[in-house]
Amino acid sequence: GPVTLNGQPVLTSLGMTHSTGAVQLTWNQVGDLPDAAASVFPRNIVHLDLQGDIKVQVFRFKNYIDVRVRMPRQPTGQDGVCGNFNGQPSDDTTAAIILRGAGRVPPGQSLFTTAATPVVSQAMQTMIATSCGTQRIAYAKSACAKTVGAAGSVDRGTLDSCVYDVCFGNNAHALRAVKAAR
């Protein structure tokens, strides 16, 4: 569908560009994919160029998105799903990010005016049950209950998506399964 900005369609087809104030949006097929799991799908990329040399690429799939954010180090610090920019990769693992709550945006701090509730498909639930392992599932549920609850969101979809992230984050087979699910 069309790309919207503040609820209004601004890019209605591939190849379009839209500028407003400090934001430039482009929708095309140009860009390196974030992982090999996506290479079997057509490229459908929205580029956002923002103030402060912040560049965002949104890779749109039928039922899934990947996002790449490139930005300089922030003077007041930063943290999130990509790490904390402190030069220590050991604290940027999926587990470490989830434990410190950096993988979820607290209410009121999101850049977006609306939020979609995550949906974990039956295929993903089956993968969790059959491929994650009992101890890993218990760890994931405990860690996610703490961090997701602290972020103010306790709905089932958010908790289940967090468990899936802990179990399969960075697993190319899982990424391909999610992106191909209907």
What percentage of the residues does DSSP assign to strands (E)? Answer: 15-25%
Report the sheet with the most strands, covering strand number, pairing sense and barrel closure.
5 strands, antiparallel
General form: globular
Helix content: 25-40%
The mean pLDDT is: 81
Q: List unreliable stretches of 5+ residues.
A: none
Number of helical segments?
Answer: 5
| Helix/strand/pairing category | alpha+beta
Number of strands: 7
Measured on Cα atoms, how large is the radius of gyration?
Answer: 17 Å
- The largest beta-sheet arranges its strands as 3-4-5-6-7
Report how far the terminal alpha carbons are from each other: 17 Å
Along the chain, the helix and strand elements come as EEEEEEEHHHHH
Oligomer: single chain
Helices and strands in order:
Elements lengths: L2 E3 L2 E4 L5 E4 L2 E6 L16 E6 L3 E7 L4 E6 L23 H6 L22 H10 L2 H17 L5 H13 L3 H9 L2
Antiparallel strand pairs: 1-2, 3-4, 4-5, 5-6, 6-7
Helix pairs in contact: 2-4, 3-4
3D structure, described in words:
This protein has five helices and seven strands. The chain has 182 residues and is an alpha+beta fold. A five-stranded antiparallel β-sheet has the order 3-4-5-6-7, with no helix packed on it. It has a two-stranded antiparallel ribbon with strand order 1-2. A hairpin with a 3-residue loop joins strand 5 and strand 6 (54-60). The two termini are 17 Å apart.
How would you summarize this macromolecular structure in one to three sentences?
The chain is an alpha+beta fold.
